[in-house]
Design brief:
Elements: H1 11-33, E1 45-47, H2 51-58, H3 60-67, H4 69-73, H5 78-94, E2 98-100, H6 112-128, H7 130-158
Helix pairs in contact: 1-5, 2-5, 3-7, 6-7
């Protein structure tokens, strides 16, 4: 990303890249430290954006430019978008905003055929339309962040949780 767009910002470009790298390191450190026992319903959420998702999302301007989707919608100024995107993703990495983890998804046995078919379609489309599928998938993930935040707050309210250290709660998903 630096050589694609941020090199033109000179020292500010290095600062933006370094900020992202430090935030990834802080995110990984927090993930390793937060291994305490938590209620089982919290297993369905990450605290902040996970590092692998942040790595894909930070590449979204590059993916978007390669996909050709930007030409249909509007002209994108990548010189402004890329540094802002780097800082926004860096903040999401170290934030405490709950995001879906998709760890404990239960698929009914009758739906497994459809899920497997959907996965085959997704990966087939990923092979043929790589950048378009990555761009659309990343936008879907970004749109799930506010949904996961409000879902987390709803579950927390239903459980009447006043602090984040309550234990003994059951999984509701």
């Amino acid at each position: 990303m630096y050589f694609w767009n941020l090199q033109y910002l000179d020292k500010l470009g290095w600062f933006v890249c370094l900020t992202y790298v430090v935030c990834v390191a802080l995110r990984l450190a927090r993930f390793n430290v937060n291994s305490e026992d938590e209620p089982s319903w919290k297993d369905n959420f990450f605290e902040g954006m996970p590092s692998p998702a942040g790595g894909i999302i930070v590449l979204l301007p590059l993916i978007f430019s390669f996909s050709g989707l930007g030409e249909f919608l509007f002209k994108v100024n990548y010189d402004l978008l890329v540094p802002v995107f780097f800082i926004a993703v860096s903040i999401l990495l170290i934030s405490t905003i709950p995001t879906y983890s998709f760890k404990k998804i239960v698929i009914p046995r009758s739906m497994t055929k459809f899920l497997l078919f959907g996965m085959v379609l997704f990966f087939g489309a990923l092979l043929v339309y790589t950048f378009k599928v990555l761009a659309i998938s990343s936008l879907i993930y970004l749109s799930l962040i506010p949904i996961s935040y409000f879902h987390y707050k709803k579950i927390k309210k239903e459980k009447n949780i006043t602090s984040d250290n309550d234990e003994g709660l059951e999984d509701i998903l």
